[in-house]
Write the structure tokens for this entry.
Amino acid sequence: MSFFRHVLLVLCSLCLLAGCQSSVEPQRLIMPDLVVAVAPFTQPTQTTELLSGFIPEDQKKISEETLNALDDLFREKLHPTKHPYVFLSDADISGDMARDARGRRNALVTWAERARKAGADMIVVPQIITLQERVGSKAGVVTAAAVNEDFYLIDARDPVTLVMRSHFAEEQKPLTSDLTKIGTFFKRGGGWVTARELAAEGMDKAVEEFGL
């Protein structure tokens, strides 16, 4: 009996610990009174357009149709929230890049200026580096979907700060190649997802990490 009593006490302690940990509020990245701009999806093709990372040599151009579809999907992800978002258009982000104090083109300064021009305090910048469409169907594929995307949260107030980066790079693999992803496999409906569905997972990750 003493053994089982000990096990029960350990389990209760773990439950209490888990409860305490879950009650801790996540760090606030965005204050409720701040206005947040959301940039449309872009595909950086030059190093100066990047906020971090690199551009692969075999990068393929993503169509405007796909970028627009990702914009619509991201808006849907943010719609249930009650934060005062300002959604920027392609026209709002057009024009030459801003330059830093040394006269160099600077992506961080550029996005901050675009946010301030829109009357926002912060800005969420989604960038998709590569996107590979699924060739096949949900039941089977010749080529699996793959996505490499980044989401950046920038404080446009002085001093301009890159608050956080949410990175998502994934190529769907068959379950037999990695059994540790069995949970993800069933979450995806037990089949092969499209590139947009995969990109949506990255959006969910950013929404959670940024506290959007």
Remarks:
- The chain has a mean pLDDT of 84.
- The longest strand covers residues 122-132.
